[in-house]
Write a structure and sequence with these properties.
heterodimer, A: mainly alpha, two-stranded antiparallel sheet, 13 helices, globular, B: mainly alpha
């Protein structure tokens, strides 16, 4: 029974990851059309357009992957065949694992059995996310190198330098969050955000660590290699950067890894700064509003509300990332490096120092 | 136990690939593989923090820099470099010395298990407590050493430009 439960939670985590990714594909295409005042993808219709309405979302979600998967797979003659095949897997695989430690709900109690809605309970969850995101670089570097093409190679070199540079502010932001909550466990951090400040405002991480949120969000967008940080792909300079020599299903895997990274950044910021699965005023037995007004709810409903709340927050943050991606122009390479090392890094260090001092002062305050 | 043998065989195989493969990019990737296997060993020993740090620092950053340098220098596979035979002799000598040392350490140490580790062995809290109380001085000295290396690197880069 325990085995089935852990299998089920892992499956739900994987499905959330995959579904968010596929949905993002459609949101990106239609969203970019909305931003640029176009119609966007509307060719795919079910039953040859016999239906009076356009099921665009379903069709685009099915048609795009089908088109990519059935395209011819071209490997350049001078490429390193093995690494050319391996690189997309190296890009996607670690990112799938990241969702294993993201909690999507509180502990659910059914028939005396406690089910933690998190695929893997890991005491060092934050470190695990950092480790897996940092491994995603290999797909870019190896893909760029194995293609044996100048454009792809330059993209791979750019990607490796960029992703290492922006991992540091990301790590510093995570350190200050860990200092605030005194734990590295993502589920415990999400649980700690369930209280209310002054009885009205939910005690979410963004009110404690606003600077860390900005740092993590910027560094996260840089890690996902999307505009304004899309220098490894930079289509006006490098054709398509590290993925120039990729086609068909392999290219779709690189594309998917970008979308998973968007989803990971959204899920991580949701968990650390927006209360994760917390719904304001909702506790284990139902809503407790101000002035003693309560609405009770069965545990299953509470859990469903938590999962929906988590997904809504994730999608809002994904949408903000897509909005940024389609509104800002690309940075120049020296600007990118200067911004990472001369702006984000000092701010991150100062934020860690300030958080440490504040945590110690507050501890002395309450301890004395 | 099965896990240990799988991990052990894989780690030795990937370590040999690092040394013996002709293509530097494959060598670096095999090094990532070897570091992963060692991280899995740490997990089997309940040292989760150490395993994660190993993946973040070595696999996630240091080998990426190795690859970066290999690709920037665009090393050709298997170029015989001058002084290669001297290097080879030195490497074999050092390997033999290390093997003798490890063998002596294993053979001469007392058999039997030491005290069982405490309950939260390897947890972040435990490692941090030991690091910042019992081993605070070496920790700070290491950070000074790293800072010196960083300053030295900047100075050398300045001199050449």
């Amino acid at each position: 029974m325990d085995l089935i439960i852990s299998f089920a939670t892992a499956l739900v985590a994987l499905l959330i990851c995959l579904q968010v990714t596929v949905l993002l594909l459609w949101i990106e295409r239609k969203g970019s059309a909305l931003i640029q005042d176009r119609v966007g993808a509307d060719r795919a219709t079910l039953f040859g357009g016999l239906l009076p309405f356009n099921l665009g979302i379903v069709n685009t979600m099915m048609a795009d992957p089908l088109k990519l998967l059935t395209k011819e797979d071209i490997v350049p003659a001078a490429a390193d065949r093995f690494l050319h095949w391996l690189a997309p897997w190296m890009a996607v695989f670690p990112l799938f694992l990241t969702f294993a430690v993201v909690p999507f709900g509180d502990v659910l109690v059914i028939g005396g059995r406690q089910i933690n809605l998190q695929a893997v309970e890991l005491p060092g969850g934050i470190l695990f996310v950092l480790a897996m995101v940092s491994l995603g670089v290999y797909g870019v570097i190896v893909g760029g190198w194995a293609s044996n093409s100048r454009y792809a190679f330059l993209g791979g070199v750019r990607g490796s330098a960029q992703m290492i540079s922006y991992e540091i502010p990301m790590g510093l932001a995570l350190v200050s969050v860990a200092l605030t909550y005194g734990t590295l466990d993502l589920q415990e951090i999400a649980r700690a955000q369930g209280q209310l400040m002054w009885g009205v405002v939910p005690a979410w991480g963004i009110f404690y660590q606003p600077i860390a949120f900005i740092l993590l969000f910027i560094a996260g967008i840089a890690e996902s290699k999307r505009a304004p940080f899309d220098l490894p792909e930079a289509e006006s300079e490098l054709v398509a950067g590290f993925q120039t020599e990729y086609s068909g299903s392999k290219m779709s895997m690189f594309m998917m890894s970008d979308f998973i990274e968007v989803a990971i950044v959204a899920a991580l910021t949701t968990t650390l700064f927006f209360g994760g699965w917390q719904v304001p005023f909702l506790y284990r037995d139902g809503f407790h509003f101000a002035a003693g007004f309560t609405v009770t709810a069965p545990p299953l409903v509470v859990t469903l509300l938590q999962i929906v709340s988590f997904l809504v927050k994730v999608f809002v943050l994904c949408w903000i990332q897509i909005l940024i991606r389609w509104s800002l122009p690309r940075l120049r390479y020296d600007q990118l490096m200067a911004f990472g090392w001369k702006r984000l890094l000092p701010v991150g260090l100062a934020n860690v120092a300030a958080s440490a001092v504040l945590v110690l002062l507050l501890e002395g305050w309450t301890g004395a | 136990m099965i896990l240990f043998w799988v991990v052990a065989v894989l780690s030795v195989a990937s370590a040999l690939t690092v040394v013996l493969h002709g293509n530097p990019v494959y060598c670096a990737l095999a090094l990532v593989m070897a570091l992963f296997q060692v991280a899995l060993m740490f997990v089997a020993l309940d040292a989760h923090l150490l395993a994660l740090l190993q993946v973040i620092v070595y696999a996630g950053a240091i080998v990426v820099l190795f690859l970066f340098v290999i690709m920037l220098l665009s090393l050709e596979p298997d170029v015989p470099s001058p002084g290669r035979y001297g290097m080879r002799a030195a490497a074999i000598t050092l390997t033999v010395v290390l093997g003798v040392e490890v063998g002596a350490a294993v053979l001469l140490s007392e058999p039997g298990s030491p005290d069982p580790p405490p309950l939260d062995f390897g947890s972040t809290r435990m490692v941090a407590e030991r690091l910042f109380t019992a081993h605070a001085l070496p920790f700070e000295l290491t950070s000074v050493l790293l800072l010196m290396a960083m300053v030295a690197a900047v100075v050398m880069a300045r001199r050449h430009t």
